[in-house]
Design brief:
This protein has 91 residues and is mostly beta strands. Helix content is 0%, strand content 35%. Strand 2 and strand 3 form a beta hairpin. The radius of gyration is 14 Å and the shape is globular.
């Protein structure tokens, strides 16, 4: 999965990570992004999240976290694109 996200410092964004869980916010962790850091540039950054294989139909929960943000604005997610993986796990 590829995400486009931005953490504009002009809006006091704190940055953080996106974790993807199966069937609930405390379900099985399928994958986690690299940190999305605040920048003075408002252009989105691309973050790939390799998801663990699973079968069947499930709900996915995207949990946005930052240990230092409190109730502040973390970041904005523009897109999430899911891609089929090949046998070696690469898109």
């Amino acid at each position: 999965m590829t995400l486009q996200a931005a953490a504009p410092a002009a809006y006091q964004a704190k940055g953080g990570k996106i974790a993807v869980y199966l069937d609930g916010p405390t379900g099985t962790l399928l994958g986690e992004s690299e940190p999305i850091l605040p920048t003075s540039d408002e252009a989105p950054v691309s973050r790939r999240v390799a998801l663990q294989p699973t079968s069947g139909v499930h709900d996915l929960y995207f949990v946005f976290t930052s240990p230092d943000a409190g109730n502040g604005f973390l970041f904005a997610v523009m897109t999430a694109t899911f891609e089929a993986a090949t046998k070696d796990g690469q898109p």
